[in-house]
Write a structure and sequence with these properties.
By secondary structure, the protein is an all-alpha fold. The chain is built from 22 helices and 2 strands. The protein has a two-stranded parallel sheet. Helix 1 runs parallel beside helix 9, helix 8 crosses helix 9 and helix 16 runs antiparallel to helix 17.
Length: 461
């Protein structure tokens, strides 16, 4: 699925001058090695979002286990508060793992983040309930969430950088889209398991031991992911950077990763904002919205979300290939315009309550979300040069996710509680779409072109 390179637009207010790219002989990528890199990166993302998906889908049960209260809304807010707390330390993880990945290598750091993610998730499944150890239960839950958040601070930026630096220029969108395919697979695994447990287990069994099963699965998944990542070689772009240095890779100051890349960082924050607000709204918050706010049947609500995610998985690779053909900017812009115009109609359909109406509303939002999931893994790494790509992307991505993405369930739940307006999810997505539209207006097209600071990458035949 190759595509002709997209010509860079002339410098202007709406299309800034392209970042200078390194000259040099083209590098030829081994298709078998690229496939291994994509699988290893996508599996780590799947494990991360399996956990986050499970946490969101089973939030009502976790609220009863760890935050006993007579008020269901207070329980849900407490559970989502612990969910959001992990995002507060993500920038710290990004500031540690990102620069480290630019210095010692992408592969080594991604192996460490895999171990930490698996350990944090597995630990949640072992924590005693509030009824057993009292206040220490939510304290330990919060500690495990902070370990997860710290490790994921280096996960997405590293995985997207890893795939982008391995992929040939003309197929970077298609290959990068498999990273979010892994995200959706993790969500489906989490949603499917929770749905199955909800259908088969009594409320008492689910409360006493059933909720632990999804978190304990993280142990074996982490071992498999670590094995795959340890078998990989460093990316050609990073190897070329190492070859330029006569001695060890020089340490790039954190200040240079921020102040030296301020324009790209602002674009990154804006793009990640619309990407993650809509992502968390649809895939993490909407299951709880259907059950707690609309009193929708829990099993049917989860099945609808499961179906939407399955549809997104089918479309995802084709949408990634489309970004190679027409460019990242048009696809991202279409997603922003869609959320701005269709969020209210889609939520009105969802609130109508019938299974068909909910499926149509959720399906429409899911197809719009694919515009971001298919584009961002290739668009975001192309904002930064090779020598600071992992570090700068980690900082920009995690700051945006922490402030806007991961807090989405908590903020929207609080807004509904404060205003009584059940349309708050739609308004929140529309506001995010405006910010994303501004960012895509100023970004430069990267499809079909070498990454900044790297030689052209071709596919070996």
């Amino acid at each position: 699925m190759s595509a002709a390179p997209v010509a860079a637009a002339p410098p202007s207010r709406t299309s800034p001058a392209p970042v200078p790219r390194a000259a040099g002989a083209p590098t030829a990528t081994d298709p078998a090695l690229v496939r291994r890199a994509v699988k290893a990166a996508a599996l780590g993302n799947a494990m991360e979002w399996f956990d986050f998906g499970v946490y969101s889908y089973i939030a009502v049960t976790l609220g009863k286990v760890f935050f006993p209260s007579g008020n269901p809304t207070a329980q849900l807010l407490s559970t989502f508060g612990a969910f959001a707390a992990a995002f507060l330390v993500r920038p710290l993880g990004g500031m540690v793992f990102g620069p480290l990945g630019d210095r010692v290598g992408r592969q080594k750091v991604l192996a460490v983040t895999m171990i930490m993610m698996a350990a944090g998730t597995f630990a949640i499944g072992l924590i005693p309930s509030y009824a057993t150890i009292g206040v220490w239960a939510p304290v330990l839950l919060l500690a495990a969430r902070l370990v997860q958040g710290f490790s994921t601070g280096g996960e997405y930026a590293g995985a997207s950088t890893f795939i982008a630096e391995y992929a040939p220029d003309k197929r970077r969108g298609f290959l990068g889209s498999w990273l979010e395919f892994g995200t959706l697979a993790g969500y489906i695994g989490g949603a499917g398991l929770v749905t199955l447990m909800t259908a088969l287990l009594s409320d008492g069994d689910l409360m006493s031991w059933g909720w632990r099963i999804p978190f304990l699965i993280a142990g074996p998944m982490g071992i498999v992911g670590l094995y795959l990542r340890m078998r990989l070689e460093e990316t050609p772009a990073f190897a070329a950077e190492v070859a330029k240095a006569e001695t060890a890779r020089p340490k790039v100051p954190l200040r240079e990763m921020v102040t030296g890349q301020w324009r790209a960082l602002l674009l990154c924050v804006g793009l990640v904002l619309v990407f993650n607000v809509t992502d968390y709204m649809l895939l993490s918050y909407m299951p709880s919205y259907l059950t707690s706010e609309l009193e929708y049947d829990e099993t049917h609500g989860l099945l609808v979300v499961l179906g939407v995610m399955a549809l997104m998985m089918v479309v995802q690779p084709f949408a990634g290939a489309l970004t190679d053909l027409v460019g990242r900017r048009p696809v991202i812009a279409a997603g922003c315009a869609g959320f701005l115009l269709l969020s209210v109609p889609a939520l009105l359909l969802i609130r109508e309550g019938s299974l068909l109406a909910v499926a149509l509303g959720m399906g429409a939002l899911g197809m719009l979300l694919v515009c971001f999931t298919a584009s961002m893994p290739s668009a975001l790494p192309a904002l930064f040069p090779t020598r600071v790509r992992y570090g700068s992307l980690s900082i920009g991505f995690n700051v945006s996710v922490s402030l806007f993405g991961g807090t989405t369930p908590l903020v929207v739940t609080a807004l509904i509680g404060a205003t009584g307006d059940m349309m708050m999810p739609a308004y929140y997505m529309m506001a995010a779409a405006v910010v994303g539209g501004v960012a895509v207006w100023f970004m430069t097209e990267s499809a079909g072109r070498p990454l900044p600071g790297s030689a052209p990458a071709l596919e070996r035949h």
